[in-house]
Every structure is written in structure tokens, then in C-alpha cells.
Design goal:
The complex is a heterodimer.
Chain A: E1 6-9, E2 17-26, H1 31-41, E3 48-52, E4 56-59, H2 61-76, E5 80-84, H3 92-97, E6 105-107, H4 110-122
Parallel strand pairs in A: 2-3, 2-4, 3-5, 5-6
Antiparallel strand pairs in A: 1-2
Chain B: H1 6-23, H2 28-42, E1 52-59, E2 71-76, E3 82-89, H3 93-112, H4 117-131, E4 137-145, E5 150-156, E6 162-164, E7 171-172, E8 177-178, E9 191-195, E10 201-205, H5 217-230, H6 235-244, H7 246-249, E11 256-263, E12 269-275, H8 280-294, H9 299-319, E13 328-336, E14 339-345, H10 358-368, E15 371-376, E16 381-388
Parallel strand pairs in B: 5-8
Antiparallel strand pairs in B: 1-11, 2-3, 3-4, 4-5, 5-9, 6-7, 6-10, 10-11, 12-13, 13-14, 14-16, 15-16
Classes of the chains: A alpha/beta, B alpha+beta.
């Protein structure tokens, strides 16, 4: 009886966005499955994906590769990728080293992330 | 009737029982012994958990006082954590022992649901009020996390545990004694958290250990604290010492239970040997994370070292020579001064990773560790990585 490395939850319901929360660890063994699950839930008319990593305890290079790939996929549909990473999260420096902020917006709380995503899309209309 | 060896032994037992019967004035003694036997048979075996050492004692009261339903319990929870319990059931003899058995099972059931200590006590309060008959119960429930070396606890009218850190004086954990079980439908239980330094000992006890006929509980608690200060830290020895000094300290005739838990950091060197399979990397992380914590690494250092180590392992597994892919790969971790040294070795061939994907993994290894050396060989690859800890302490 092995516990899964991570669970993907869609607790936050939002009409315009897909909001996923990853509880657990993302690494080379489950990154592909996670990508599949996220892409299955993502609609083309959605404004983008908010991926909440505040309950994610581990990310390896395969997970970071997954984030870059998601960002690329989203961009081709003019959709945005937003990551929630709390201040002081151990993974923060690693994300910075990989310059993930060049392809995704990073917010410290889910509320902040949702607010920004909504404000931007209601405001000037995302370009 | 006669079978070799047995009759004589049987005769002795019957004889002893008869003479005990004669001695027992009103059957009180039998009741007491039955209660004690039942109690002892119900008390659990202590779990074996990496990073923790347990010892416990139960002692029935003396003949002229009640045999209560004091109990202790300890059981593994998820993620290497352990639930520990100490409780005191007001009642007598067999009845109290049976009641204690119900409470023990109920508490275990709630605890194994993964509920927090305060919530477990709320459920227990409901359990006592709805389903039980009898007097008041005090109980303390705590979750020990050897990984983070913390204990989270809540008390239902039970005296607070003692924490004895090496080199310090024992202190009572801050635990507000909430409402005893079975008193009201609106109890209050607060949770508190304490840190457990390596080699510190946590002592849970019932009032029988501190209270005596002539000794009020407050004075008894202070006397107990002093006994623990002078006593050994090793749980088994601590239990023996505390029971030994009981008569001079409290002269208690009540029954009593005590449970001691010591945080035992793993060895200076960690050796992990796992099959060369992708699922092994997560196993490696569990063991390594606990070891790094005890070696003094903080959360960021633990994550970054785990990541570097994980990348080395993933590369090893992805490129292990097919012929030896069932052979284990090994991870050694040592602390040298304030530096952590990790060696990952396997029977495979290290491959220069392609630009994308794993290229980032190797770059991260080099970025996160102070030094990385990769020694490819025909018989296998050896990756040696070093990282100095910022606030290295102890060990």
C-alpha cells in the first residue's frame, strides 16, 4: 500500500480560470501524469492556469521542466500561467535559479494570484 | 489426568490460589488482582519507530486503595509520526480496566483517522458522554514527529508532560489542561506545540506518579521534575528510576502509568541501499530528509540537498547499465564538521545529459551544492557532493 507522491486538487472553483493545487511531491516519476491531468482539465477558453504550490513539498528538475512546458503550451493559446509560492518556501531559490519568472507569474497567496488574474483580464483585456 | 510434568506445576498453582483465597478477606484482593491482570494484558506493546525510543510502566495501586484504569498507549501514524497517550479513568478494579479498554480503542480509532489532538479529544468527550457510564476521565494525546522533532499535544484535564533536553533542566510542556472527558457537551481543548531537541526525553504520567497521601499534586509535580532532572535520559532507565524513587518522593498508593519517549538522532553516517528503480528516489528522500534534519540542516538546506541528491539518483537510474539495473544503488551521507558529504554510487554508466530536461538537473546540482564531482567508471559511477550547513549545530 503505497501512498501516491502527490494529489492534484481542484478545490477552488473559478469560471474563468483553472485553479489546481498540488499536495505532495512532483518529481520525474509523476511529472508526466500531472501534466496529463492538468491539460485534461484546462479548457481552451479559460484565461489560464493557477497552479498552487503552497502544499507542494518537493519539486525536482523534471517538475520544473513541466512548468516550462506548461507555460509554453498556455502561451500558444494566449493563456497565462500563474504559480502560488509562499514567501520563505524552501523551493523559492531553486525556482529563481531556473528563472521560472520569465514564463510564469509568481504570487505568494492564492487570493493575490486570483485577484491579479481577474483584474488583468477585466482591465485592459489581456493582450 | 496425569501428563508428564504438568500435574506438579498445576498443583502448585491451585495451592497458591487457594491460599490466596483464604487470605483475601472479602474477595477484594481477588478483584484487585483480576483488575491488575486485565489492565496489564490490555496495555499495548510499544512501537518500534526510527528516531524514537520508548519505555513505559503500569503499576497497580496498593491493596487498600482502588485499582484505577490508568493507561498509556503509543502507535505509529502516517509519515513516520507516532501518537502517544496517557489517561486516567476514575473507577475500580475490573470495571475500570474494562472501561479503559474501550477508551483506548476509541482513541486509537480517532487518532488513526489522522485527526488533530484537540479534535481527537472532542470526539473522545462525545464518546464518553454518549456511550459510556462512569466517572470522569482525564487524558492527554500527543503526536510526535521525529522528522521535525516536534510534539503537538492537547490535554483533557491531564497534568502536562515533562520535557528534559540534554544539558537543560526539565520543564513542563505548555499544555492547557482542558475539560476532562465526560463532564460537559461543550468542552474546550487547546493544542500546543513543543520542540524536542535531539536526545531529549518526553515524559507522560498519571497523577499517581506525583501525588501522595500527604503530598498535594503541585508539590508532587515539582518533586517529580527534580527527580527527572537528576535521573537518566534513557527511557527504560528513567522509568526504573522514577518508580524506584516513588516511595521516598510521593508515597503514592494510587495506581499509575508512565510513558517516556526519547528522540534518538540517527547515526553520523547514513547508508541507503535501494533497488535501481524510479520509485526508489522517493524512499531515498524520506530517509535522507530525516537524517539531514537531525544533522542540523534547516528547511531550505534540506530541500536543496534532497534535490541535488535526487537529481544524481535520477540520472543514475535513467542510465544504469541494463545488465545490472536490478542491482541496488547506494547513497551515503556523512557529516564532516559543518559539511554534509553525499556519495551516490551505482553500477551504471553516467551519461552526459542532453541539453534540455536533465541538463537542468545537473546544473542545479552544481548550483545548490558547494562542490560536485562525477567519477564515471566502467563498473559504475560515483557522484560526490558537498554542502556546508549555515547554522550547523550539535551532533
Amino acid at each position: 500500500m503505497k501512498a501516491p507522491l502527490a494529489q492534484l486538487r481542484f478545490d477552488e472553483l473559478d469560471d474563468a480560470l483553472l485553479v489546481g493545487r498540488v499536495v505532495g511531491e512532483i518529481e520525474s516519476a509523476n511529472a508526466d501524469a500531472l501534466r496529463g491531468a492538468l491539460l485534461r482539465h484546462l479548457r481552451n477558453d479559460s484565461a489560464g492556469l493557477v497552479l498552487d504550490l503552497s502544499s507542494t513539498s518537493y519539486l525536482d528538475s523534471a517538475a520544473i521542466e513541466l512548468l516550462f512546458e506548461l507555460a509554453r503550451r498556455l502561451r500558444t493559446h494566449r493563456q497565462r500561467l500563474c504559480l502560488v509560492v509562499p514567501a520563505g518556501a524552501p523551493m523559492r531559490r531553486v525556482l529563481d535559479l531556473c528563472e521560472i519568472d520569465t514564463v510564469a507569474e509568481i504570487h505568494e497567496t492564492i487570493d493575490e494570484a486570483l485577484r491579479t488574474m481577474h483584474e488583468d483580464s477585466e482591465g485592459g483585456g489581456a493582450g | 489426568m496425569e501428563r508428564g510434568g504438568i500435574p506438579e506445576e498445576g498443583a502448585v498453582i491451585v495451592g497458591a490460589t487457594l491460599s490466596a483465597l483464604k487470605r483475601a478477606a472479602h474477595g477484594v484482593e481477588i478483584e484487585r488482582r483480576l483488575g491488575e491482570a486485565l489492565q496489564l494484558s490490555l496495555l499495548p506493546e510499544l512501537p518500534v519507530v526510527p528516531g524514537l525510543r520508548f519505555a513505559a510502566r503500569y503499576r497497580a495501586g496498593t491493596a487498600d486503595t482502588r485499582v484505577g484504569g490508568d493507561w498509556y498507549d503509543a502507535f505509529p501514524l502516517r509519515a513516520g509520526k507516532v501518537g502517544i497517550v496517557i489517561g486516567d479513568v476514575v473507577g475500580q478494579g475490573v470495571e475500570a480496566a474494562a472501561r479503559m479498554a474501550h477508551l483506548q480503542s476509541a482513541l486509537r480509532a480517532y487518532a488513526l483517522e489522522g485527526l488533530r489532538p484537540a479534535v481527537v479529544l472532542e470526539r473522545m468527550n462525545g464518546f464518553v458522554l454518549e456511550g459510556e457510564q462512569g466517572g470522569m476521565v482525564t487524558v492527554l494525546y500527543a503526536i510526535v514527529d521525529p522528522d521535525g522533532s516536534t510534539v503537538k499535544l492537547a490535554s483533557a484535564g491531564h497534568p502536562p508532560p515533562l520535557i528534559h533536553s540534554p544539558g537543560g533542566t526539565p520543564v513542563f510542556a505548555e499544555a492547557r489542561a482542558g475539560t476532562p472527558l465526560g463532564v460537559t457537551y461543550f468542552p474546550t481543548y487547546e493544542e500546543s506545540m513543543a520542540t524536542l531537541d535531539p536526545w531529549s526525553t518526553l515524559l507522560l504520567y498519571t497523577d499517581g506518579l506525583a501525588e501522595g497521601p500527604e503530598l498535594p499534586l503541585a508539590d508532587g509535580l515539582e518533586a517529580l521534575r527534580l527527580s527527572v532532572a537528576d535521573g537518566p535520559a534513557e527511557p527504560e532507565e528513567l522509568c526504573r528510576t522514577l518508580l524506584g524513587s516513588l516511595d521516598t518522593r510521593a508515597g503514592s498508593r494510587d495506581d499509575l502509568a508512565l510513558l517516556a519517549v526519547q528522540v534518538t538522532p540517527p547515526e553520523r553516517t547514513l547508508v541507503i541501499s535501494v533497488p535501481t528503480r524510479p520509485s526508489s528516489v522517493a524512499c531515498m528522500r524520506r530517509a535522507m530528509s530525516r537524517w539531514l534534519r537531525s544533522a542540523g540542516a534547516d528547511d531550505v538546506e534540506i530541500y536543496e540537498i534532497l534535490l541535488a541528491c535526487g537529481e544524481a539518483c535520477v540520472n543514475t537510474i535513467a542510465h544504469a547499465h541494463p545488465a545490472v539495473s536490478d542491482a541496488p544503488f547506494e547513497v551515503h551521507a556523512t557529516r564532516e564538521g559543518d559539511e554534509i558529504v553525499i556519495v551516490v554510487s551505482d553500477g551504471g554508466k553516467w551519461r552526459r545529459p542532453p541539453r534540455a530536461g536533465r541538463g537542468r538537473g545537473v546544473a542545479l546540482m552544481r548550483e545548490l551544492m558547494d562542490a560536485v564531482r562525477i567519477d564515471p567508471g566502467d563498473r559504475g559511477t560515483r557522484v560526490t557532493m558537498r554542502r556546508r550547513l549555515e547554522h550547523a549545530s550539535g551532533t
